[in-house]
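User: Please fill in residues for this 195-position structure.
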């Protein structure tokens, strides 16, 4: 799937939802939030923090409240699309433009902005770095590899460690290590080509 390069291009790519997207965008632009394209979709920020995003799919268009878990949601409109995975994000899905009650949606947006100003947010839990034995041995025997690995961000280190350590068989772990070493030495993250 092609990624949009601008908010306008995102809307053009989702022409089936033009009216709904325009209505939601209009509500967001009435606020103090700043619009940007992030992860290929429109997001709206306050003081460098994402507050709300817009997403269009085949069946619905929706708002993504980044810390929606803190919204009162008396009408029970918000859903957690990733039960047991998503902690803070909540979605409000609309199956047609007629379902968008502008006053109600605007009230939710304003509440989300106020919550952000109050500092209400879910902090991501830091995943531990567990270095598998095969990688640990390689790091201890190759000084250049150790220096290159240590220069990687913690997230990239975790990606490599998880990738190598998640293999069930010894031979697979060694094969993965062999393929990862040149990338580590170049300072490339395991998943950089997808970013």
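Assistant: Residues filled in for all 195 positions:
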């Amino acid at each position: 799937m092609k990624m949009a390069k601008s908010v306008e291009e995102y809307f053009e790519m989702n022409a089936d939802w033009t009216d709904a997207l325009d209505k939601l965008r209009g509500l967001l632009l009435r606020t103090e939030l700043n619009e940007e394209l992030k992860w290929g979709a429109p997001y709206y920020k306050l003081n460098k923090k994402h507050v709300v995003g817009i997403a269009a799919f085949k069946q619905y268009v929706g708002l993504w409240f980044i810390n929606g878990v803190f919204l009162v949601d008396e009408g029970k409109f918000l859903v957690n699309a990733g039960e047991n995975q998503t902690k803070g994000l909540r979605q409000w899905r609309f199956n047609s433009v007629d379902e968008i009650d502008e006053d109600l949606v605007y009230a939710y947006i304003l509440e989300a902005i106020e919550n952000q100003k109050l500092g209400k947010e879910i902090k991501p839990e830091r995943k531990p770095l567990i270095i598998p034995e095969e990688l640990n041995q390689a790091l201890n025997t190759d000084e250049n590899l150790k220096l290159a690995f240590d220069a990687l961000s913690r997230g990239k280190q975790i990606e490599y460690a998880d990738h190598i350590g998640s293999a069930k068989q010894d031979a697979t772990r060694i094969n993965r290590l062999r393929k990862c070493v040149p990338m580590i030495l170049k300072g490339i993250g395991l998943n950089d080509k997808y970013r």
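For context: The two ends are 14 Å apart (CA to CA).
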